[in-house]
Structure formats: C-alpha cells, structure tokens
Amino acid sequence: MKSIWMHDHTREEVGEFARSGGAVVVALAATEQHGPHLPVYTDSFIMGDVAERSVRRAADDVPVLLAPLLPIGCSEHHLSFGGTISLSPMTYFQVVRDIGESLVKAGFGKIVFLNGHGGNEPMMQQVANDLAVRHPIWTAAASYWSLARESLAAIRASEVGPVPGHAGGFETAAVMALRPELVREDRIGDSHPERDWIFAGPPGAFVGRHGELTGCDGYTDAPKLATAGKGRLYLETIADSVSGWLVRTIRAMERGEETL
Amino acid sequence: MKSIWMHDHTREEVGEFARSGGAVVVALAATEQHGPHLPVYTDSFIMGDVAERSVRRAADDVPVLLAPLLPIGCSEHHLSFGGTISLSPMTYFQVVRDIGESLVKAGFGKIVFLNGHGGNEPMMQQVANDLAVRHPIWTAAASYWSLARESLAAIRASEVGPVPGHAGGFETAAVMALRPELVREDRIGDSHPERDWIFAGPPGAFVGRHGELTGCDGYTDAPKLATAGKGRLYLETIADSVSGWLVRTIRAMERGEETL
Amino acid sequence: MKSIWMHDHTREEVGEFARSGGAVVVALAATEQHGPHLPVYTDSFIMGDVAERSVRRAADDVPVLLAPLLPIGCSEHHLSFGGTISLSPMTYFQVVRDIGESLVKAGFGKIVFLNGHGGNEPMMQQVANDLAVRHPIWTAAASYWSLARESLAAIRASEVGPVPGHAGGFETAAVMALRPELVREDRIGDSHPERDWIFAGPPGAFVGRHGELTGCDGYTDAPKLATAGKGRLYLETIADSVSGWLVRTIRAMERGEETL
Amino acid sequence: MKSIWMHDHTREEVGEFARSGGAVVVALAATEQHGPHLPVYTDSFIMGDVAERSVRRAADDVPVLLAPLLPIGCSEHHLSFGGTISLSPMTYFQVVRDIGESLVKAGFGKIVFLNGHGGNEPMMQQVANDLAVRHPIWTAAASYWSLARESLAAIRASEVGPVPGHAGGFETAAVMALRPELVREDRIGDSHPERDWIFAGPPGAFVGRHGELTGCDGYTDAPKLATAGKGRLYLETIADSVSGWLVRTIRAMERGEETL
Amino acid sequence: MKSIWMHDHTREEVGEFARSGGAVVVALAATEQHGPHLPVYTDSFIMGDVAERSVRRAADDVPVLLAPLLPIGCSEHHLSFGGTISLSPMTYFQVVRDIGESLVKAGFGKIVFLNGHGGNEPMMQQVANDLAVRHPIWTAAASYWSLARESLAAIRASEVGPVPGHAGGFETAAVMALRPELVREDRIGDSHPERDWIFAGPPGAFVGRHGELTGCDGYTDAPKLATAGKGRLYLETIADSVSGWLVRTIRAMERGEETL
Amino acid sequence: MKSIWMHDHTREEVGEFARSGGAVVVALAATEQHGPHLPVYTDSFIMGDVAERSVRRAADDVPVLLAPLLPIGCSEHHLSFGGTISLSPMTYFQVVRDIGESLVKAGFGKIVFLNGHGGNEPMMQQVANDLAVRHPIWTAAASYWSLARESLAAIRASEVGPVPGHAGGFETAAVMALRPELVREDRIGDSHPERDWIFAGPPGAFVGRHGELTGCDGYTDAPKLATAGKGRLYLETIADSVSGWLVRTIRAMERGEETL
C-alpha cells in the first residue's frame, strides 16, 4: 500500500484492501487534563506515536491499515479540572459503534481497537463485543499497557511510578521523549499524596472516590524521575509489544477463517 | 439489622442505615443459555449464592446490606442460541445507572457492584466510575472471578476447565452443588473443540469471532470432570474471597473518609 | 415440565416448549418505599407469591412457564421518600421491551405480562402492544388488581381500605400473611388524611399533585384493620382470579391460532 | 380572555393567565387509517370538536385555555394499513413530555391532558405522572371515552357498536355529524368478523394479536347503523361529560391548593 | 382529489394517490413568543396560510397533497420569554423523521418539507437528507423566506424591517392581514436596539449571544411601519413563490424518474 | 501562547486563556469517499490546512486557540460507496454538543465552529444555537465556503466546477496542492452526467434523490481542469476569508460584552 493510513487511500483502494481480508486498526485516545505539567493532548501524543509505529511494523507481516486517531475520548472524570474535552459514556459508545459499523460497511472483516486512555476501555470492550455479535466478522480490542505489561516490567518501567498511572512519571517520560517543549518542568512537584485504597483490590477490581478517580489533584504520582531517555525506551518497548500482538492476532484470525 | 437484605427493611430503616455510613452491594447476574446441559439461570444461581453468603459473612465486620439480585444482564451474544433474556448494552447501562442513582437518593455513600456474568462487566465498570464522578460517594465494582482468582488457583479449580469459562466444568460443578436436579448429565459431552485464538492475547486483550464469543456451541469446555463436591469447594472458596474483599474495601472507604 | 420456572430449564428445553406453542408469563414488581411500616419489597413479595401460585395452577390446564420476577420497576414518584430503587420511565420501557424481544427470539409466540405495581402499567401496556405490532405473536398484559377486582369485591376486601391502594390496609394484610416478621406494627397509625381529589374522576381518569401521587406521606390509608388472615384470603382470591384469566387468555390465543 | 385558545394570546397574556392559577388543556389526537370508509383525520376531527366545545363550556366556570391540538399520535399499529402518520412510542413520550415541560416553564401549575386516540394513552399517563413528580404542579389526564362512559351508556350509544371501538358505528356517526362529505358510504360493509378474544378479559386487561390489534382489517365493527343525528347526540353528550370533569377537576385542584 | 388535505382522505385514497406518484407537503411551524404584541401562534398562522394557498395553486399543475400542519417546533431559544411550547432538538429530529418514515410507509416517493420557523431548519434539513439516503425516494425542503427572497426583495418588503426577522415589521404585517384582532397595537414600540453582530457574517454564518438569539427582548425590530395591506401583499407574494417552487421541484422529480 | 493548538497547553494554561476571554475554534471535517480519484481524507486535509492557517493569522489580532480537528463527521449519504467512516446524525449531534459543553466547562465564553463538510452543517448549526441558549456564552458557526464565497467568486474559482461541490474540480485542485501523491489522476474522467434538479431551487432549498445526494457516482463534476496551482490559490484565498471572519466575529463579541 502507498501508506499505512487508511484515509490516504481512495474508496476503491480501501474497499479492495478490506474485501481481500486486510485488517484495520482504530486508535482511541483523549484530550484531557494531565496535571499541572503535561499538555492536555498527552494521551493522543502517546497513542498516536505508538499506533503509527506499531502498525507500520506489523504491516511488514500482515495486511493492516490505520484509521484516523480519535483524539477525544471518555474523560468525564477530568472535566472538573479544566482543559478537558470529553464525550459522555453514552455518546462515546455510539461514536465507537458508528465507527465500527462504518468499517463493516466499508468491507472490513477484521477490526482492531487499540486504546490509550483508561476511561475509554469499558465502551471499547462493549463495542468490540457487539460488532462481532452483530456481523460475521472478527474484532479485537486492547489498551497498550495490557499488551506491554510484561515487557515494561522487564525493563522496570515502574521505577518512575505506576504504569501507566495518569500524568505521573511514566507519561511524563513519554511526553519528554515526544514533545519536550510542552512539558512544564517548573510545575513538577517532589512528592505526591498516597491513596491506599486505589490499589487495594486484585486486578480487575475497581474502587473510586469522588474527585480522586485518577489520583490526587488529577494525577497519580510525582514524575520527578522521568527523563526523555526513559520515555524513548518505554515507547519503543510498547510499540514492539503492540506490533507483536497485532501480528499474532491478525494471523490467528486468518487461521481461524480457514476452519470455517 | 434484622436481615442482610436491604429490601426486607422499611424506608426509614434503609435511610438510617445508609446515612450512618452503611454500604450496599448490588449483585448482577444473567438469564442466558448455558450449553445443552445447564439451566439458563446458572449465573443467577451462582451469583445469588455467592452474594448472599459473602455479604452475610462481611456483615459481621462491616455495615453492609444486599440489594435484590438483578437476574437479567447483558447477554446479546447468547440470544441466537435461545433460552436467553438479555438487555441491550444501552439498556443495561441505563438500568445499572438508575439503580445506582436510586441508591444515592436513598442516602448511600458506599455502593458496591458485584458481578457474576462476563457480559455485564463493561457497563458495570462504566457506571461505577460515573457515579463516583457525579456524586460525593464511594463506589467499587468487581466480578467474583477477579476477586477469587488466586484462591481458586490455590485449590487448582482449573483442573475441571478454564475459570470461570462458560457452561464448562467450573460452572457445571457449581450448579451440581446448588441445584443438582437441574443439570442434564445426559447432555454432557466428552470433548469440545479448542479455539486457539480465544486466549491468544495477554489478560485484558479481547479477540472475538462472530458466533464464537463464548466458545463453540455456546460453551467453552466439556464439563466431564465436574462434581458436586468440587462445586461446593469452589463456591465456598469464592464466598471467602468475596467477603474478604468486601470487608477490606469498605474499611478502606471508612479510613479514607477520615482523611476528608 | 420439571418446574414452572422458565429459568430452571436448559436452552433446548425452553426452545422446544416455546416453539410448540407454550406461553411465558413475565411478572413485574417493584422495590420502593411502602410507608413507615412495610418493607420496601412489598410489591415484589406480593407479586412473587401471586405469580408463582397462579402460574402453578394455570399450568395444570395450559402450557405456561414463569420467567424470573423483575423486582425493580418504575417508582420515580417514591424516590423522594427514600428506600426506593427505581428505573426511569424510558429505562423501564427499554427493559420490558428487551425482555419481550428476547422471549420472541427464544421462540415464544404467547407472552403475558403480569403486573403488581401501578407505576409499571403504562410502559407494560405500551410494550405489550408494540411487541404484537412488530412480531407475529400474541401478547397479553394486566395488573393483578384488574383481574381480581370482582372477586375481591365479592369478599369485601375494601373493608380494610382502598384496593389495592399503596401501603394501606390491603397491602399490609398481604405482607402480614407472607412475611409477618417484616411488618413494623409499631409504626401503623390510627388515622390518615383524606385527599378528595384522588378519586374525583371516573375510572381511567388521573389527577395528581406533586408529592402526593400515592396518598399522604407515601401511603393511601391507615392499615389498622389489616390482619394476616385477611391477607391470606386476599392473596388466595387474587391467585384464583389470575390463574383463571391466564387459562382463559391462553386458550383464546390457541383457538385464535386455529383461525389463521 | 379574548379567546379560549392559548395560542391566540401574546406571551405576557399567557404568562399572566398561567401564573394567576389558570389551567391549560392539551388535546391529543391522531392521523391514522380508519377503515375503508372514514378519513384518516377521524380522531383529530372528533377530539378537536370535543376539546373546543368542552373547554368553551368549562371556561364559563373555571379559568382554562386550550393549547393547539396535537394531530399526530402513537399509531404504530396502523402503519401497515397505509394512510397513517405515526410517532414511535419513544418519540411520542418525548413530545408529550416536552409540551408539558414547556407549559411548566410558561408558568402553568395546572396541566390537563385530554386524549382522543387509544394508542396515546400509556405515554400520556406516564407523562402526566412524571410532570407532577418533577414539578410543584397539578396534572390530570383522561381519554374522552372514560369521562363519558356512563353518559354514553345512558343514551345507549353502544347500539351502533362498541364504544369507542375503531372506525366502527360510533366513530362513523361522529364523522357523519362533523364532516359528512368525507364519509365513503359506498365502502361501509354489512358485516364484520367477530374476534372473541378481544374483550375476553376484564377492564384493564389487554390481549392483542399481530395484525388485529384494532379489529379485523383495521376496524372493529360494521358501521351500518351509524347516522349523523346519532353522531351529533354522541358528541354533545361527550362534550358535556368532558366539560363537567374539567370543572370538577380544576376546582378540586383549587381547593387542594388552599390546604398547602 | 376531493380536498388538498391528505388527512381528509381514506387510507385507500391516500395510498392510491401516493403510489401513483403524487407528492406530499409537510408544513412545519411553531408556537412561541412573538414579542409583546403578537400571538404566540404567529408562525403557525403564517405557515398555515402560505402552505394552504401554495399547495392549492400547485395542485392545479402537479399531483400534491398537504399533511396536517405541525404547530409545535424547535423553540428552545424562546422558552425563557414564556408563552412558548417547544420540542427539544432531539425530540424534534425524531418527530420529523417519524413523520417522514410514516409517509414512506404510506407509499409516498416524493416528500416535501416546507418550513415557517427558523429554529426548525437544521433538523428539517437533516431529516430531508436522511430520508433520501435511507429510502428510494425524493425529498425536498425549504423555508418560505428562502423561496420568496427575490420576489419579496422586488416588492421591497424590507422597508418594514428585516425579512423575515422575528416579531418585527414583516411578521406583524402578516398577522395584521390574517388575524388583526390578535395584534396588540398598544404594545408596539417606536424603536428597538440594534445589535451589530447579528448580521456581521456573510449568509450562512451564525453568531449568537445568550439571551439575544432573536434580537432584543425576543424580537428583531420595531414593527411600527407594518400594515394589514402590506401583510396581504407579502403573503400573496410568498404563496406565489412557494407554489412556483413546488411545481418546478415536483416536475423535476418526475423528469428525473424517467431517467432511472 | 506557545502554540495555536489548545491541546499543546496544560490545563492551567487553557483555563487562564479561556477565563481571560480567549476564543476557541473547533474545526469539523470528515473521512468519506471522494470519488474514484481522491483520498477519503480530502475534507480533513482541506479543513485541517484552512483551520491551521486561518487561526494562526487571526491569532495575531485576537486571542484564539484551535482545538483538535474532528476528522469524522456525518457522512451517511456516502457509506454505500465504501471507504467512509460516518457518525449517524444523532451521534454527531451529541458529539458536537459534548465538545461544546466540555469547552464551556473548561471556561470558554467564545466558541467558534468551523466546518469543512456539508453533511455536518445542520447539526453544527443546531449545537451552536443550543449552547448559546443554555449557557451565558457566545457561539459562532460557519462552513468555509460560506465565508469565502465572495472572494472565491472574485478569483473565478467556479471555472473548475461548482464550489465547493464534492470531489470535483475544486476539491481536486486543493488536494493536488496539499497531497499531490494521493491523487489518482488515472481515475479522473473527462465528463460527468448533469442532474438538472440539483441546483433547481434558490439558495437554501434542498432537493435530493436516493443515491444521488452528492452528484452521480459520489461526485459532482469531472475535475479535469484542476491543477495544484489553482488549489494553492483557492486555499490561500479561503484562509484569508476565514481569518478575516474570525477576527471580525471575535471582535464583535468583545464589543458586545462591553454592552452587558
């Protein structure tokens, strides 16, 4: 293909790619407050970089295109901090569903949602499920941190703070790598209150307090150990994990189709 | 309290309990096909038993009531197999939200959702999040298998099949323990096709194929090793884990309130 | 059948019953404030008892199963009194519609809604109508007090208060019969204000005042004449009327089908 | 007032009337097939006539205005016969709700819905209830046949067919009185099939069959006994009953207000 | 046809007209505040007159019927002034869509929306577009002032104020012509504040300020130059332009059909 | 400001800018089929370029930031051609509303919608109106071709085809200027069928035929006269007109505020 971007192609080029079994990746991000030091586009910067790099690599092995990044997500819990553009959960559900339904009409039988903002997860999962119920297609869905958990642990990414956290050491390092001029280093504090309840349950169990759904003052940890070099390493590691998952998943779908 | 059931009480009794800091547990289940051998109420039998036992135990340590079980869930992926009563994702979202909003109006500041059906998870998580955004309250949410993962692993529950799976060895054992007369043992097969893609990704990554979202023919594994004894052990283990989590979570909320 | 409960059966058992012309009854109730003396589950206790008894009797004469009781209804007018779990009218409409649509997909051609809470009536009637418009099926719908009006009059049930009223003599007698330990007799008053407008119009005409849609202080009349014995008589009379209506209605559907 | 029509007045005239305690009547009708012989505006012709006459009379005794007739209703069950303009139940609910909310904003504290089409009843009742829950106002709601049941029985209106029925003797007589040139007398048959199930239950109990929700071929009875003279008598009788109810209801609201 | 009104006909008469290629016009109006001097039904009076006259004339040349006027529109920006009955944008969208969908089911292949209230334009345009996307039909849509812009300019209608404006000279003249007894001449002022931003952009560009979306105090200009004679001239001119457009548009549809 | 992009800033930077009276521009585009020769991102390429250039220029004169481009719009009429990602009108309405509501919460009192796809116009206009009704703010909204109509006419842009048309000479020239490598010149035809009805009415009047809402075969005219040089000229002219309108509109708002 002349480009990894679905939207660089004409309708016939997209249609032929889709009907011949090619997959499409829909990357989901957000525009929301990221503490006093990071730009509100942090999730979109990170997801945009990871999506582009990982699809580019995966495209060497499997036929896959990347749809336009959705830069606005479900960020209701950040609205009160300002600087946030959010779709309500109901609106977001309909948006992701309409995107998926459009891609089915465009001929795609393999649709992959790739997510870079925690607040988008429930609706993404719901839609991925619903589309495969309704249409004779395959769907897949994951957040990048789920895909890169083990490889990030292997490089001890948690040394800068919880992974991914929110506007803490991990995300700060990533933005330092991608857009260093946008990081307000003068606003990075040395310490951050701990909330013992946040990680009280096992994985999958949620506990939330009004006003503190994403740490104190809208971020989870003081990013004082973040550096651009670490950010580059994290992003590279994530792109590797995501591209690997894309290849394995699309190939599993191809093998599965042979059994029909 | 005269009963662990919220609904056994009068309005004033409920109101006083809620306003004095008591928590309420909302248990979510389903009525859906469970293969050729299990009753369609399987998830409700299991969740009903687990919820009642775990709240009863937790109530010894923390103030907590149990709301009526919601026996219908989000089971669109099972409708085509028959025997299923499902709410669409949008309807289910509104139902869980309205229940939560009612409990806030009833005075509760600590609302816990406890889930027993995979298809309910995204909307439960979304609502638990939204309620804590909108109101000055605490919420928590988890599926029983997330809470009991480690303790079930410790007793090697996976020897009968994936945990929880769907209508496989694990759930069959549980129904044999609870309502043995409803299990059609004559319809239990010896083998079941494997789908290599289902568990292809890491935890949190979803891959789904039209018609095979919950294994082949609507169930995940042949339950030929299930016994009522194992089922009793699993249920007891789950109730222990869930009651432990309830106590820890409600106490963490209580401690958190002191910091306000 | 091994049980009158639809949900005790497997998907194939339900499917065969439905496709061979069997009917299904969906009982609708509520969890809402019932004055200072009755449990908030009053409507569900009563409807649950009436539904189970009347379907059990009707099943001797016609093929009929009972779906899980829906214990939460449309109780917006009770929320301000506390102790209430309510679905908004729009949510409730979608819930009853989704239940009906699921039963159609499960193969049922005869769907009967049986109601035990006044606030559920409009949406139940709308959905019963809509389902028969949309699908080649029969539907029926009624509240128990409409079906038992004449037989309750014959035993002078109104001697304890208006029938059914709300949390007055009639419902108090019923709960005394079913769950006497849950009645707060110490909270039953001797008198109750009269509102002359409530019954000003003929049957079918509604007049409502903000805050007094169900009598004063959330109940219609002082239940001082209620006894458990009267409650047992009322419930028995209602179950008789309802089972009679179920048999006549399902038989009329069967005769009607022969004329197609 | 210079006119009984609310909409003939300016905003200040409406506002002063409303805030001084005046009531407003919202008349609900339909545009839908009425068999092979009546115009599709039958319900609107009848409701328009009854509403205008009864409000005019009532206005002699109580302060009341009439809002514009809503000529389109909830007629999904008639769409398949053609000639029908229908709002879906959800749309209709929102329309009646928005009308009511607007009237509250316009200052009205007494809102009366008057209905002339059976399919509108559930949503009208729901909205009348909801408005009084949400706002410190009075609402009332009734269909004209409920209000005139006894007086129509007294003049034996049922001699021409069931009252009101649909497109049968009763409505045909009314249109003969109002718009005789629109009645296709050449399409009036001599006989009509009977459906024994339609009136099988007691008042309030619904039974419906796909395609026959309003009699056979979209009407309930052969109108061969209808005459314009009978129609005039029926309409006059109905207007009397409705105006009487309006006066009694609005006066009861006024008395009730004094008790606040 | 015996009448230009669709609703004067029976279902078979409507069906035959529609299926033989006849068009239907849906006129959209409003009930909303029109300053201190005009009745709240102003838009409905004007649109009703224009629609009836222009369809009557067009019917001499092309087969066309007129559906019932929708007298309530999207007037949220007027609610705060009182005297207004408004449907929210979402409700209005559904209403116009349901009307269009009904007309498609009634057999019409040519549906024309004719609008007399600015607030209705976006949703009318959206629905006209959507219907033609979804069904194999033609749709058309316009507001009367767009159709009569040139002919009103030719008679210098703007001498009384902006055309159409809101409750200014233009509309006042029209109501003086149609219902002079309803105009409160004692409430017509001599001057009116100018808002320079309102017409700052080119045609198609909107600028709005909270509370001043339709001029100051809910009207755009002092109607001191309005007369009944001018109103008659404007209305006659508009009816001519609209009927001309109807004929040209329906004939273009007929020619277009021949090319299929 | 360090950047014209709102999303490059931190939450505090955005909040201070907004609360001090700065404006925000929301650019709306689409991803949809553009005939056999243009990429599906055509509207987003053009709107993205115009928005960035015109806001950059306007920012020299008035305080204004640019929100992230919304690259998916309301393109239902293009879905059947393939290569299209569309939000349904209801979804799109909610998306634009949620974006606007978020910006209000973020502190903005001047919100400008700038549109580059015809199908987005009705909902954009509706939302711009609604936001100014609901909140004490200013809104503005326009499509770029409305703003540049006169200046494009002055340079005779219509020599290449109707302006803007769809995927015809005008848009082809623009993409040739922006992304020449994406234009499939081998797919540009020499001629294109004319549809006489499309421009039959005056400005503001819509006529649409199923399947031909945007010309034949999904485009309006053969772009054989398009060149990159013309495209650069058109884009430069548009950016000038849009930035001029932005400055005039924001200054008019500022002057208007002084009159409050």
Automatic annotation (TrEMBL), chains A, B, C, D, E, F:
Q: Which UniProt keywords apply?
A: Hydrolase, Metal-binding, Zinc
As one GO molecular function, the record gives: hydrolase activity, acting on carbon-nitrogen (but not peptide) bonds, in linear amides
Q: Which cofactor does it need?
A: Zn(2+)
> Which GO BP terms apply?
riboflavin biosynthetic process
A single Pfam family it belongs to is: Creatininase
Q: Reply yes or no: does the keyword Hydrolase apply.
A: yes
Specify the superkingdom: Bacteria
Q: Which Gene3D superfamilies match?
A: Creatininase (3.40.50.10310)
Chain segments annotated as coiled-coil in the UniProt record: none
Q: Which residues cross the membrane?
A: none
The UniProt family comment states: Belongs to the creatininase superfamily.
Q: What's the protein here called?
A: Creatininase
